[in-house]
Amino acid sequence: MRVMGLDLGEKTIGVAVSDELKITAQGLTVISRAGKKNDFAKLKEIIDEYKITKVVIGLPKNMDNSIGERGELSIKFKERMEKKFPHLEYYLEDERLTTAQAERQLIEADVSRKGRKKVIDKQAAILILQNFLAKI
User: Fold this and answer.
1) Most buried one in 35, 53, 110, 133, CB count within 10 A?
2) Which residues, in sequence order, are bridge partners of residue 13?
3) Residue 65: pLDDT above 90?
């Protein structure tokens, strides 16, 4: 039984999963978005393979703690997932600055700009999930 963390982007979805003890988060993949049907089919494969019981979705809030357009899209995505996979528990996790933090970590690891672009969403998903795991 694991927890899955998602970083939603316009073109990609970064995916991370917890270990079975729900202590650490590992980056799993980046899903290239190709329509709701495709996105949910790929998520279902992950949910089934890793026996996911909880899903944590990054909620991009504004710096004043308000929810803007991107945040609303995350909330709608969560609602669609709840209808598609009603047996799972869902959480929204404040993701302010996670992409910037992920970028810094990748730069410190000397990952090229091209390489960072390929994994930034997965790295952000790790941070979202790790922040959630630290609270449970």
Assistant:
1) 133
2) 8, 31
3) no
Distance separating alpha carbons of residues 87 and 90, to the nearest angstrom: 10
Q: What is the full DSSP assignment across 87-124? A: TSEEEEEE-TTHHHHHHHHHHHTT--HHHHHHHHHHHH
Tokens of 117: 């672009």
Tell me, rounded to whole angstroms, the distance of Cα 105 from its chain centroid.
Answer: 17
Report the predicted TM-score, pTM, of the whole model to 2 decimal places.
0.88
Domain chopping of the chain, boundaries: 2-133
Write the pLDDT tens digit of every residue in 17-59: 999 999 999 999 999 999 999 999 999 999 999 999 999 999 9
**Cα separation, 59 vs 76, whole angstroms:** 11
Strands, sheet with 52-59, edge to edge from the N-terminal-most edge strand: 25-32, 12-18, 2-8, 52-59, 89-94
Q: What is the phi/psi pair of residue 68, to 5°?
A: -100, -160
